[in-house]
Design goal:
Blueprint lengths: L36 H16 L3 H18 L3 H19 L5 H11 L3 E3 L6 H14 L4 E5 L2 H17 L4 E4 L5 H8 L3 E5 H15 L5 H11 L12 E4 L2 H7 L5 E6 L3 H14 L8 E4 L4 E4 L1 H11 L9 H16 L7 E4 L2 E5 L6 E2 L8 H9 L7 E7 L1 H4 L5 E6 L6 H8 L3 E3 L8 E3 L3 E3 L2 H17 L4 E4 L3 H13 L5 E3 L7 H7 L6 E4 L15 H4 L2 E5 L6 H8 L9 E8 L11 H5 L14 H36 L8
Parallel strand pairs: 1-13, 1-14, 2-4, 2-5, 3-4, 5-13, 15-21, 16-21, 17-19, 17-20, 18-19, 20-21
Antiparallel strand pairs: 6-12, 7-8, 9-10, 10-11
Helix pairs in contact: 1-3, 1-4, 2-3, 3-5, 3-6, 4-5, 11-13, 13-14, 17-18
Amino acid sequence: MSPPLELRVPLPGPVWGAYPERREPPRVRWPWGRAPYRSQLQAVRAAGPGWRALSEVAFVARVRAVQARIGRDGLSAERIVEALAAAVEAARRSLGLAAYDGQIKAALVMLDCRLAEMATGEGKTLSAALAAAVGALAGMPVHVLTANDYLVERDAGKLEPMYACLGLRVGFVIGLHTEAARRAAYALPICYVTARELVFDYLRDGQRRGFVQGDLPRRAAVLRDGDAGRPLLRGLCMAVVDEADSLLIDEAMMPLILSRQVKNSPARAFFWQAWQLAGGLEADVHFTLDAASLKARLSPAGSALLAERAGALGGRWRSSRLREEAVGMALAARHAYRRDVHYLVRDGKIEIIDEVTGRAAPGRVWSRGLHGLVELKEGCRASPATETLAQITFQRFFPRYHRLGGMSGTLREARGELREIYGLDVVCIPSRLPPSRKTLPGRIYTARNALWDAVARRVAEFVGHGRPVLVGTSSVAESEALSARLDAVGVAHRVLNARFDADEAAIVALAGEPGRVTVATNMAGRGTDIALAAGVAGAGGLHVMCCQFNASRRIDRQLEGRCARQGDPGSVERWISLETPRVADVPLLGALVRRYAADEAGRLAMPPRVLSTLLTLSQWRQAGRERRARRALLESDREWERGLSFGGPGE
């Protein structure tokens, strides 16, 4: 007798097809439909002594028996408990890690196809491994998605003994891997990979499939074409997503575009002409710049001058819409996009800096000619022209998984949107130990230079007490400006930004040493575990200074979460200036600033509670605007897909 539909395990094969993926929108998971996590946790704990008493041979035999029962009964609550108890024991035997109640509960939440909010430092890596192990024991190909290639390789290697104890193999995919290496890694029961690598491999599979939707034609194509016709993935059966809010919310609208090189010299000449024309326009006379949206808008005088100068060029320049769009983009490249803020120049190439993660994103390019215009600005060799083969966004990709779960330390602010778009419920996991983080009053300064002077003095003060300090800045340029100020006053430190991403592991490993100072961008905000050295806890723990104003409160919380982990002491404070990015756009701040005097160090006497309220209100309003934009884009995408009903999911 086959198990009920909701308990069946999606597997590549005759029932689910060679490439399983969800075609219909996921069903909404409401809080009242949650599994009984407390009783399941108690059952896992009760089964522990029986598993611990087994010899190695008996342990392996019992694991195989559990796999057989899952194949017969599906992923019922009883079978999940059995498999999870085996995974907990495997972690103890192979890694010496005793899973905490919170880690086991988080794994149960993810196996229930929901999202677990766990405080930073509560052991999300092991929770993900426990959930992935249960899914793999059920026979599903499991994708564990984490933040970057460094964590992908680290976690896969670190957890390999645990998976091997269960008779499972694990692989990983990073950007440098060949197609053959990727196919081999995805063929294993568990594969660690970043979301971008996974999505692009999915789009490549879509190109191989073309418009062939039936399972038999796909198999025939593989027999005909050999490896060239074989997909890289084995479908979208189960995913465990680390830092879920980053992918599902912050990067939800980012278009992931699969392209190929083409010869397109006329287009390149067109944008070169746009660059030259933009150079003859004056700010505030012919155009205005919107720094927040990174766009330039022509004034009537600018439109008239452009029409006059472009008239002799003919061709596309006869279209007012095309010429104003192209020149507006060239103006944005000249004046809005800033080196070491929005991009790096490395090895003669433009590398975009991801605003959310603070990391360089090699291979990512701006579309519609913008990337070529920035290359012109920096004197870089022009990249080959490309054409789009396929594209998708994260908010259209992830609902295609049959089983989707994840975790993060900052989910509750977005729980409504996560349920509306992905059908995912958020479950908060209590911390193992009471929180001990101290939040100190915030400060605001009149100018950036005054801020850096004050931060340098503050850092020196904490270093004198033997405490490590992590300073978060908003960009590569800001981190290097503060670094120069610290050098000037003789404070030894390390810089962690997109320019030094290759040194990340070494910098993070030492960031918890006594008196160690680390100046970082948002690279230090996610997936970074700063372990305290001996004696540091007694001195007060890690101190975090937030010298940035992020668009989302969730990103602030990620940086704050680097300190006071797992019951350790720590403290955090926000120091900003009126010149800090985004601060000038805070409603009412400009009017209130005039009411408060500044001292000789440039610090405004604004009460910390007033400052905090203004910043929180601004973030709340920005989050609402971004939420509405994501919803509008999703509705547009869905309408487009309905219009192309003959196409299917091949993008």
